Amino acid sequence: MTTLSRFEIHQPATALEASQMLTHYGDEAGLYAGGTELLLAMKHSALNYRHLIDLKVVPDLNSIEVRDGTIEIGATATHRSIERSPIVQKHHPVLAEMESHVANVRVRATGTLGGNLCFAEPHSDPATLLLVLGATARVEGAAGSREIPVGELVGGAYASNLEPGEILTKITVPNAKPTHRAAYMKFQVHERPTLGMGLWLETQDGGRTIASARVAVGCVCPFPTRGLDGEKLLTGSREEVEKHLPEAADAIADAAELLDDHEGSAEYKRHLIQVFLQRVFRKALG
């Protein structure tokens, strides 16, 4: 029977104080938000922290607001609160829908968006969709704050690109416009998804023409990956794009570092990308 080693919980009053605590305790400290992944990793000795810094008590770090044409989501906002937020449902229904399918309701009620992104579990949903929605992350530390694209926040499997002492405080997502179409789909047999795919389109002529596109895959590779060459094949008339979907899917698969693992072979995952690009394209355009 596995058990947690003893640790001490610290409750900062501000994000700056949390950053200072993180710097003070160094490698012996970890950030605690929902704890759904962190405590499990500690229980199985994959991580060993003597100090946990509780971000849930920092005021307003769980807020969801509309500001200057964007949705600003605090890092400790839970998946469940994002899923049920009238603001998110109105301005980005695709994000609310994706959140409604994260894990199960117990995890969604506890787990946080910021914790999910920073833990960088490869078989996860949010980062893949946020990547194509053009989301950015605000991180704060003793040296000040900075904004980075979500794609640059995730450094690899279970790794972020945060500097020592830095804390993710906010995720900003540009509001959808009437000409935008977006969709997220995943394929899942076991507890964690085998494939996640996000697609964002800028359309013209009522959806008959696609001016630009962003597509990303996750779960099949160490971290969510944009298919930049594939995106070039997703512009033009809808009829022409539909003809190029198989070619685009191959380009997306080539860009991702497809892995052979217990979820399936790399070739199997390439096949899933072929199937789900067709599906997510149809879903995005309704």
Task: Describe the overall structure.
This protein has three domains: 8-57, 2-Layer Sandwich (Uridine Diphospho-n-acetylenolpyruvylglucosamine Reductase, domain 2); 64-174, Uridine Diphospho-n-acetylenolpyruvylglucosamine Reductase, domain 3, CATH 3.30.465; 180-285, Enolase-like, domain 1. Helix content is 36%, strand content 27%. The protein has helices at 15-25, 38-43, 79-84, 86-91, 93-99, 105-110, 113-119, 126-132, 150-153, 228-232, 238-255, 266-285, and strands spanning 8-10, 29-32, 51-54, 64-67, 70-74, 136-141, 144-149, 154-156, 159-160, 167-174, 180-187, 195-204, 209-218, 225-226, 236-237. The strands form four sheets. A five-stranded antiparallel beta sheet has the order 4-5-10-6-7. Strands 11, 12, 13, 14 and 15 form a five-stranded antiparallel beta sheet that branches. Strand 4 and strand 5 form a beta hairpin. Helix 11 runs antiparallel to helix 12. The longest helix is centred in the last third of the chain and has 20 residues, at 266-285. The model has no long low-confidence stretch (mean pLDDT 95).
Q: How many domains make up the coordinates?
A: 3
CATH topology of the largest domain: Uridine Diphospho-n-acetylenolpyruvylglucosamine Reductase, domain 3
**The CATH architecture of the largest domain:** 2-Layer Sandwich
Q: What is the count of helical runs? A: 12
Beta-strand share of residues: 25-35%
Question: What strand line-up does the widest sheet have?
Answer: 4-5-10-6-7
Task: Please outline the major beta sheet.
Answer: 5 strands, antiparallel
The overall average pLDDT, rounded, is 95
User: What are the low-pLDDT stretches, counting only 5+ consecutive residues below 50?
Assistant: none
Structural class: alpha+beta
Could you name the CATH class of the largest domain?
Answer: Alpha Beta
Report Rg.
19 Å
Residue share in helix: 25-40%
Order of helices and strands: EHEHEEEHHHHHHEEHEEEEEEEHEHH
Shape assignment = globular
Q: Count the beta strands.
A: 15
The CA-CA distance between the termini, in Å, is 50 Å
